[in-house]
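quick one, 461 residues, struct below
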Amino acid sequence: MKILHASSEVFPYSKTGGLADATAALAKAQAVAGHAVTLVTPLYRGIREKFDGLKPLGRARMPTKVWRLEPSPNLTVLFIDEPEWFDRDGLYGHADDAERFIFFSKCVAHLAWRAEIVNAHDWQGGLVMPLLGDAPVGKVFTIHNAAYQGCFPADKFELTGLPKSFFDWRQLEFHGGVSFLKGGIVFADLVTTVSPRYARELLTEEYGCGLEGVFQARGDALTGVLNGVDYTEWNTTDNPHLAAAYSADSPDGKSLNKRALQRELGLPLLDGVPLLGNISRFTDQKGIDILLGALEALIGSGAAFQFAGLGSGDPLLEKAMSGLAKRHPEQVAVKVGYDTGLAHRIEAGSDFFVMPSRFEPCGLNQLYSLRYGSVPVVRATGGLDDSVIDLGQGEASATGIKFADCSAEALGRALGRALSIYARPKSLTKVRDNGMRADFSWGQTTAEYERLYAKIKKPAA
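---
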C-alpha cells in the first residue's frame, strides 16, 4: 500500500514525547514490510543543519517549500519548510499554534493525492481528516493522548477554509470553540489509539476528557492497537550508551550497568539494595506527585533502596524531585532535563522501573524496561495494563508488578512487593527473564494496521 503519515514530531528529527518515537517506528516497520511509506512533518529549527541529504521535493503543487529525505528503503520523510510557522524554539505552546497546524494540515492534504491511506496523528493532524474531503483515500486518525485536544477560539475556524456547516456540535465545534482532535475523530474512516484498554477507557467520563460522547458515537470505528518497540534503537547488546552488553541469555552485564549508573549519578556503590528508576515528563498525568509521596514514605520507614530519576515538566514538580534528591543524596539522584544516553543507562542500570501514571494511553518506557531487565512497577491503566503481567498471576508468567488505586499508599505497597521479590534472587531472576524474552516488536502492530487499512482502502479507479 501507499501510506502517508502526518505527525507534528518524528524521531530523530523532532521530539517532545512518545508521539515522535511511535510514528517513526510504525512508519519504519511498515516500510520494512514492503509498503511505500511517506512521513510528513514540519521542518523545525535546526533540522537542516543536523541532518544531511535533504533535497527539494520539486513539483508538489504546494504553497510552500518541501524538503525530502529517504532514510531507508520504501521510506520518505517530507519536511514542510515555512519559517514563519516552524523556525522557532519549541514545537508547541505558541500563541499562534492554531494557525501553525491549520497550515500544516493543509500542506498534508495537498501532498496526499497519491496515497491510498492517510494516517494523521494527534490534534496537530486532526484537521487533515476533514480537509481531505471526498478524496479517494482511506482516512485514519490515531490518538496518542486525548488529553491534548487542540482547542481554539471559534474565530480560528474560518482559517481552515472548511464549509461553515462544519462548525457544528456534531463535527468541529466544541464548547463554543473549535477542536482539532474532535475533527479528526468525526471525519476519519477509522479511529485508532495506542492500546486496547485505552480505547475502552476513552468511552468513559473518567478518561474521555469531555469527548466520551464523541468516542461512543464512533465506537464501531474505534480500535486500540498496542504500540511496539524499535529494538534496533532500544537494545542491550549493541548499544553505545551502555557500559556493558547483556541479554536474557547472557544477563551478567546488567550488574555492571547498575554499578556504572551509581557512579555516574553519585550514588553509593552498593550491590545489595534495589535501584528504582523513572524517566518521565514531570506532570500530574505521570503520577509524579504519587511517586514523591511513596518515595518519602519508603525513606521514612528506613527501607533500603536507591532511586534514579530523569525528566522535566511542571516547575513545581521539578523542584520537588530535585529537593528530594538534595535531602537524601545517599538514596536519591534526579537529573532535570532530557538526556537520551542517560535514559538508556537508567533502563539498563535499574532493577525496577516505576510508572505510576494516572492514565497512560500506551506507554513506552515499560516496554523498554522489559527488554532491559528493569522490572516494571506500573499502575493498571491503558497500555501499562495491556503490556505487563502482574506478579499475582504467578512467577512462571509474571513480568512486573501492577497496582490499581491512584495513590501514594497503593504505589508504596507495590514498591514493597518489589523490595520483597528483590530479597528472593531466584524469583527476581525469573520475572526479569520473562520480561526480557517478551516480544513487543513492531511486526505485530504492523500486521494489525495492515488488516485495518485493508478494510477502508478505496477501490482503484
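Residues 18-32 form the longest helix (15 residues).
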